Write a sequence for this structure.
DNA sequence: ATGACTTTAGAACGATCGTTCTGTAAATAA
DNA sequence: TTATTTACAGAACGATCGTTCTAAAGTCAT
């Protein structure tokens, strides 16, 4: 069944621009009008493809995170040591920033006006990256590279730091930011205590 | 010269509630109406004390950060080693969270509609805490406790992590969050590599 | 008590918000 | 070709936004 309409493409463009705007300006700070202008389609047409603003964001976040997880699963086997995986992850997070959407998800979830089912879905968002981080740390324990007493806490802090660094993607020079991503892994690995 | 008017008090109440709301819901997500309801004063009255929403936020951020800096300067001498200072700082940041306002400041500064002078002022916000962190690390180097090749980067990452942890103040249980603050210092100090 | 000034509430404004409705040109099916 | 469905634009809606205006009540000096 061939389609000559190219509605899917339009939907993709709207989704892409919306994700960008949400990442930069937050949920409340991004209007449908903004999305309309950035995508080049009318405001009314955004509603042809997406039920409302909240559902649009949830779709973006869920789909983005799913794609993120799949992409990481694809490249992860290329790195053999836990140490390498950790450095690779830091670069991966920087170049495939779904994490701003995580923060925006927190913003939405914190708003009392947000529907409970949406909040529920948003809380599940962080599971994908956290699981990926946790897997690396566990792998490092198994290979004897790492010594970690509190896996969950370590995972959480690592994710928190990487996520926070992503906030600077739109404002900081790429090379400098990349250095900071590397350095956070360095710090996690070795600390600063004199030995 | 005694004053029987107590306008200063209402101004303080409005400022306090506004800071709380901005921290929780962000700049765009907080309306003057919200602030009016939370403080118990009319919407118009908010404008009697503050010129507009933007100026209100800038005042809150600047004043809050100034108070934060003074308070830390007051307690800092109680801790003798750099290590102790670092742990003390993590607790201090958690209990005197001005850092959510830092994030909201980023949100405001990222918005093209924000006036340039406001953006300028907001960029200066992070200087106070960063200087405080940097002082601790430098102190640790001087006492021989720490070995740090990139002071600025280390400072930035430490501030980033603490700031990000503050985001969970309204959603996470206090004791658990406190554990994470402690643990981030642990990690910065020692890392996870097996020795 | 009177008049000046400060502090407050509340109505009102235009702009913009998220959303819905209406109309229409293009694509497909008959 | 005609009828139906799909893909869009754009006007319009009520609600809420940040902000301003009006006016009354409270406080103070005289």
């Amino acid at each position: 069944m061939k389609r000559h309409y190219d509605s899917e493409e339009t939907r993709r463009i709207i989704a892409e621009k919306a994700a960008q705007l949400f990442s930069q300006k937050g949920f409340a700070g991004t209007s449908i009008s903004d999305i309309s202008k950035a995508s080049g389609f009318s405001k009314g047409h955004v509603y042809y493809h997406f039920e409302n603003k909240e559902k649009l964001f949830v779709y973006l976040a869920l789909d983005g995170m799913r794609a993120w997880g799949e992409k990481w699963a694809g490249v992860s086997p290329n790195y053999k040591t836990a140490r390498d995986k950790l450095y690779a992850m830091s670069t991966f997070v920087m170049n495939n920033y779904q994490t701003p959407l995580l923060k925006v998800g927190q913003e939405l979830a914190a708003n009392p006006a947000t529907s409970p089912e949406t909040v529920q879905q948003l809380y599940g968002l962080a599971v994908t990256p956290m699981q990926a981080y946790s897997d690396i740390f566990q792998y490092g324990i198994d290979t004897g590279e790492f010594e970690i007493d509190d896996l969950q806490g370590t995972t959480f802090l690592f994710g928190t730091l990487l996520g926070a660094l992503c906030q600077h993607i739109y404002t900081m020079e790429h090379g400098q930011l990349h250095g900071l991503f590397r350095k956070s892994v360095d710090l996690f690995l070795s600390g600063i205590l004199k030995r």
Remarks:
- The interface with chain A takes residues 24-29, 103, 106-107, 110-111, 137, 140, 144-148, 150, 153-154, 156-157, 160-161, 163-165, 167, 170-171, 179-180, 183-184, 187-195 of chain B (CB under 8 Å).
